[in-house]
Structures are given as structure tokens and as C-alpha cells.
Amino acid sequence: MCACRFEATSPNSPVSPGEFEEYCNAYLNNMERNEQQSQEQQGQVKNDADDVYVQLQQKEQDLLLAAQLGKALLERNEELQKKNEQLAEEYAQKLEEMQQQRHELKFLMEIKEGQYENAIKDLHQDVEYLRRELEQRQQQSQSGDRERAQVVDELKQQNERLTDQLRQAAKTEEQLQNQVQSFRDQLNSKRVSMHEHVQQLEMLKEEIAILTERKNELDRRIAAVTKERDELLRTLEESQDRIMMLEKQNREQEHQLHLQEQGLGELREQNSQLQEQLEGLSLHVASHRYDNQESLFNELGQSENSLDMELAAAGVDVLKEELLLVYQELRAMAREITRSRSETLSPDDITSQDMRKDHLQMVTQEIRSLIQALSGKKECPCLNSPDSVEENDRQELEEKISMMRQELTRTQRELQKLNQQMISKDEELHQKTAELTSLTSKISIQELELQQLEMSKIQAERDRLQDQALTTVTRDEVIEGARQDRNEAISKRNSMEVELAKAKLDYMTLHKQLMEAIQQKIELSQQLEQWQLDMHDLIGTQMKRQIKDETEKDELKAEASSPKRTFHIFP
């Protein structure tokens, strides 16, 4: 029935799109019907002559239908050539409109460049403000260093004064020994009577009682001083614990800074990847605009011719295999024409045993929709106008610029967080310096009290030696007592020097930590400034490269618009 209708049409009359679609449907239905009949006939007796005649008659009808279909396709090709000439004229008109739009875009680009320069000026002002703040912080740190140097000089002077006092005490000890010797000589000369000796003994006993009371008072004072020293040692231990905690916090902050540096490196890698994507998009748009059109239609014609020849010569099994190949080729052409990235079928996904009716119907519907789009003067995605391509490129560039701005705002937020962390670290350093000054003041007060106690003890020992000189104590006992007192004074001096050395070590460690923190802060600020400069340079180079790519695209489009292009379905 379909073959009769196809033969009824005159060979010279033009074929309308509706009739062409009916012919395609009739041809496909006939192929499906033949396939069903071949499947049914495989189960029947093969020696039936009537079935063979029916198959031969059906194949002859298929050949006639294929011939008429090829003729209709040739007539359709002539119509498409005429339409192609009309499209070329429309393309020239659209090219003029595109040039006008290009001038408008250049004007908009100049406005955007002015805005970008203003933003860069604002950022430079922010950088200058941060540099001034950094200089102020450095001046403050230098003034703190000078104050600490003054404190160290004062401590050295106090130590020198203590050594001078110890030397003077040694000299006074020698003088006292000389006085004792002179007193003994006087005693030997004054021993005249027992009565005077007894009176002197009573007086000495009274003085001994007074001295014992004084000694008890001194012992109580020494106990109080030792208690205060223990309290100061506890405060020193607490300060050391605090220093350990602060060192731990400093290490954690260094770890956070390391993580932030890694984040900055990732951002730089993302920026480089975006730059590479921009270059790849510009090259892809410039080179793959008109390359795939003629090859697709040539493949379509070759597949149809090969199908006609192989249907006439092959059997049922060969027909299945060839239908599979035709399906795969049509599927590939549909994917190439529509540029659909969602299609994931490969030629190896379907075999001849798994091939069904709906597979061919799906591909024929896709080809039919493409033919309707061509007949209705709708543009195929592979034949997009340069205006739409330029619009897509511009949209992609605007999206990339917006993403880069978002990254810039995010990095500015991270900079603000880092500044807050630096401020908190400065506060902790100020607290450390305050604790250090309080400890040094306590140590100086303790040293003054110990000096006063030592002076009072030296005076008491001198009085005791003078009193002993008046007694009948032997010379050896006096010398032994003086040596013991001297040894006690030396041991106390050594202990005080050890405590002073410990305090100096604590002071030096705190000073070193303070300088390290200041150095880390300076390095971090320098890294942030360098990163900001890198971001500005990267944005500027990308904008220049985008402008250069757009100018090159415009030149290529102007060169491509000069010769007229013709598109053929068949070679």
C-alpha cells in the first residue's frame, strides 16, 4: 500500500516535508513488518514456496521504496541549497548587527575597566594603611626592647653594688679581727683584779641575754623572708606554667597559619586552573565552529546508500547486523548534531540480539526532529550563529569574573580573620610583658629586703664580736665563729645569684618568645601583601587576555564573513 502511494507521485513534482515524513515512516514500518515476518517465518516450514514468493515480492517493494526515498532526498537537497543561500544573506545582515553590538560591548568594557581601576586604588590605600600600622607596631616593639634593656642594666648595676658591699663586708671583717686582737691585748693588760672581772662577767651575761633576744627576732625575720621566697618561687612556677600554656597556644596558632597558607596555595591553583579553562574555551570556540557540518551529512548519505545495497544482497541474519550498524551510526550522528553530553550510549552497548523496535524508533524520532528543525528554519546547535556564540562566551566570562570576585571577597574575609588573630596575639604578648615586669619588680623587692637583712646581720655579728672581745673567749673560737658567719654569707650570696640567674633566664626566654611572635607577625603581613599583589596581577592579566581573545575572535569572524559558505547534505 505504501509502495503504491509512493509510485503515484510524479517524479518531477517536489516533495513536501509532510510527504517526506510519511515516506520515512512507511519505509521504517515496512522494515519492522519484514523483521516481524522474518522472525515468524523462522519457526515455520522453510520449504513453503508461497512464503518465498511473498518475501521476494516484499523485498522488491522495499527496493522501490528505497529508490523513491533517495530521489526525494535529492530533491530535498536542492531545496536546502536554495535555503542555504537565503541563510547566507541573513548571516551578512546579522554580522553587521554583531559589529554594532561589539562597539557597545567595548564601551561597556571601558566602563568596567574604570571601575576596576577605582577598586585597585582603594585596595592600594588599604595596603598603605596596613603598612603604617605595621610601622607603629614595630616602633612600639622597639620602645619595649629599650625598656627591657634598661631593666637589665639596672639589674646589672644592682649586682655590682651587691658585690661591692660583699667586698666591704670582707674588709670590715678583717678590721674586726684586728680590733679583736687589739682588744685581747688590752684585756691582758687590764686583768688586774677579780672583782672587776666578776662585774664584767655580769654585764656580759646581760648583754648575752639581749643578743639572744635579738637573735630570736632575726630568726623570725629569716623565717618570714624564707616564706616570702617560697611564695615567690611558687609564683615563678605558676608563671612558667602560664608560659608553657602560651607556647602551646602559639604552636596551635602556627598550625592554623600553616593551614591558611595551604588554603592560599589551593586558591592560587584554582586561579591557574580558571585561567587555563579560559584559554581552552577561547581556542575551542575559535576552532570548532563550522568543522562538523559537512562530515555529518556525508555520513548520513553513506549510511543510507550502504543500507540500500546490503538489504538487497544479504539474508535475515546479515540484515540484523546491518540494522545494528545503521542504528549505531544514526545514534552517533544524533549525538554529534545535538552536542548532547547527557547521552552516554556507546556503539558496544547494544548487540544484534538485544536490538528492539523502540531503539530504531527513538533514533528515527531524533533524526525526524532535526529534519523538522531544518525545515522550519530553526538553527541546529552545531550551526549556531556567531552572535549566540559570542553571547555564550560573554556569559561565561561574566560568570568567571563573578566567581573570581567571590573568591576575592572570601580571601578578604580570611584576611580580616588573620588580622583579628594577630590583634589577639598582640594582647597576649602585652599580658606576657606585664607579667614579666611584675616578676622583675618582685625579684628586685626581694633582693632589697635580703640586702637589708644581710646588713643587719653583719652589724649584729660585728657587735657580737666586739662583745666577745670583752669576754674571756679564746682567739680560736672567735676566728671559727667569724669563718662560719662568712661561709653563711657566701652561701646566701650564691643562692641569691642562682635565683637572679634563673630570673634572667626566664626574662630572656620571654623576650625571645616575644621577638619570635613579632617576627611571625611581620612575615605573615608580608605574605598577605604579596598574596594581594599576586591576586591583582592575576586579575589584570586575565582581563587583558580576555580582551585580546575577544579582539582576535572579532577579527576571525570578520575574515570568516567575507567568503560565502554553502552547506550540502550529500557530497
Architecture overview:
Helix 4 runs parallel beside helix 9 (475-561) and helix 8 (386-470) runs antiparallel to helix 9 (475-561). By secondary structure, the protein is mostly helical. The chain has helices at 2-8, 17-42, 49-190, 194-287, 293-313, 316-338, 357-375, 386-470, 475-561. The protein starts with a helix and ends in a 10-residue tail after the last helix. The model is unreliable at 1-15, 289-301, 307-316, 339-357, 374-386 and 563-571 (pLDDT under 50). Residues 28-284, 394-534 form a coiled coil.
Summarize the structure.
88% of the residues lie in helices and 0% in strands.
Structure keywords:
mainly alpha; 571 residues; disordered C terminus; 0% strand; disordered N terminus
N-to-C span: 33 Å
Count of extended strands: 0
Pick out the low-confidence regions: 1-15, 289-301, 307-316, 339-357, 374-386, 563-571
How would you sum up the global shape?
A: rod-shaped
Radius of gyration: 53 Å
Structural class, from secondary structure content?
Answer: mainly alpha
Number of helices: 9
Main β-sheet, in a few words? none
**What value does the average pLDDT take?**
68
Helix proportion: over 70%
Which range does the strand content fall in?
Answer: under 5%
The helix-strand sequence is: HHHHHHHHH
